[in-house]
Design goal:
heterodimer; A: alpha+beta; Phosphorylase Kinase, domain 1; 2 domains; 7-stranded antiparallel sheet; 7 strands; B: Arc Repressor Mutant, subunit A
Chain lengths: 246, 161
């Protein structure tokens, strides 16, 4: 990179927006270029000064109140000539609407916290080197190990022939209850498969999502909820799910 | 009502007075409520801030039509930036009033990136989504906004001396 190109990247460098390779190149350049180093220090000094003295405003209470009132009015259009019955009906409709809105939001929120929790559990299991409680590639060892430790019997399948060897299993904790985590591996990528009894007996196909760079698949089969979490790509993770459910 | 503080702060800096900021946030909250169904992303804060931002700029444009204010020009405002005296540095604490006044002197497009980056700590990607511009534009705007701000702050030092 030329001096001019580097200079362009000083701001994203200070903001931590550059990838490692570019960041390293900037660092090397800064070591030998007074001009760029002065700019870097100036940006840092400005950021520090702003962090200390940039005043944020909080929403005035009266604004909070008037927004709330406006939203309530929005949810229930009032007409001066409405009969009490119509008023009652619109009131009920409005209550339903608010309930639906709240439910929708809380469902969205709980789903996202569950996903976060799954990814956190996955990361924790790798960090704490507490990947498995029972080390075995034999499904007939892993499955009985859970007996008496939990109130359901998880399906344990050996998929090593298809390139997903079983490494073992452990008990994990998810939204306040004990669940089963089976650990599989694809080459170097560990897969945590969390299993818990589902609320319904409906069958759902694997649905993919991504959180903090990890891929997740969620499906329901035979009254069990399955969550596969891994840094493996979605295609191979889907392959894993297909094998597991077949 | 989550994000209302962030929304008010952004609107307050963009509109530069409390009454306009209130109107803008009120309007944005209603719009967010009406269009909540169409929101599909994960980042509800960025989504709401983009509504606030758009409402603010619409209001500013309405005001501008009344005054003889210049339209923001990416090229004009970039033209090599301002010459910065190499001797001037921000080396002591600034008081809040000075900082607030300095930010208010910037064009709204610059105020926006400064507030989103330094106050709301948004990433370049989030700022790009909120302001509806490419990430490259965020990068160059932020660089120029900081340069302007630095210049203004240095000048206010000079005056205090």
């Amino acid at each position: 990179m030329t001096h001019e190109e580097i200079r362009e990247l000083i701001h994203p460098y200070v903001d931590g927006e550059l990838d490692v390779a570019n960041g390293r190149e900037i660092e090397q350049h800064l070591g030998g270029c007074d001009d760029c180093r002065r700019l870097e220090q100036r940006v840092r000094a400005l950021r520090t000064a702003l962090r200390k003295s940039l005043p944020s405003y909080s929403a005035p209470t009266t604004l909070r109140r008037s927004v709330r009132t406006a939203l309530r009015r929005e949810a229930r259009p009032v007409h001066p000539f409405l009969s009490p019955w119509a008023l009652f009906a619109t009131g009920a409709a409005c209550a339903l609407l608010i309930l639906a809105f709240a439910f929708f939001q809380s469902a969205r929120a709980s789903r996202s916290t569950l996903t976060d929790e799954l990814v956190s559990n996955h990361i924790r299991s790798l960090l704490a080197t507490h990947l498995v409680d029972v080390v075995s590639s034999d499904q007939h060892t892993v499955k009985p190990w859970f007996d008496g430790k939990i109130d359901f019997a998880p399906e344990v399948r050996d998929l090593s022939a298809a390139g997903f060897p079983l490494e073992g299993g452990r008990l994990d904790y998810l939204h306040g209850r004990t669940v089963v985590a089976l650990v599989y591996r694809r080459n170097k990528h560990p897969i945590n498969l969390f299993i818990e009894p589902a609320a319904t007996r409906d069958h759902t196909d694997p649905a993919a999502s991504t959180r903090r760079g990890y891929n997740l698949l969620h499906w329901t089969q035979d009254g069990m909820d399955y969550w596969a979490v891994s840094d493996l790509n979605t295609a191979e993770l889907r392959e894993f799910a297909a094998l597991f459910t077949s | 009502m989550p994000h209302l503080d962030a929304a008010f702060s952004l609107a307050r800096f963009l509109m530069r007075n409390e009454n306009d900021a209130r109107d803008v946030v009120q309007e944005a909250a209603l719009r967010a409520f009406r269009f909540y169904e169409s929101f599909r992303g994960e980042n509800s804060r960025a989504w709401f801030l983009s509504i606030v931002r758009n409402a603010s700029f619409t209001a500013l444009k309405r005001q501008r039509a009344d005054e003889t204010n210049v339209e923001f020009d990416e090229e004009l405002h970039s033209a090599g930036g301002l010459p910065v005296d190499p001797g001037k540095e921000i080396d002591r604490e600034l008081d809040r009033q000075t900082v607030r006044a300095a930010i208010e002197q910037l064009p709204p497009e610059f105020r926006e990136v400064i507030i989103l980056r330094e106050l709301e700590e948004c990433s370049y990607k989030e700022i790009a989504d909120i302001a509806g511009v490419p990430i490259g534009t965020v990068m160059s705007r932020l660089a120029r906004a900081r340069q302007h701000l630095h210049q203004i702050l240095c000048e206010s030092y000079e005056r205090e001396k």
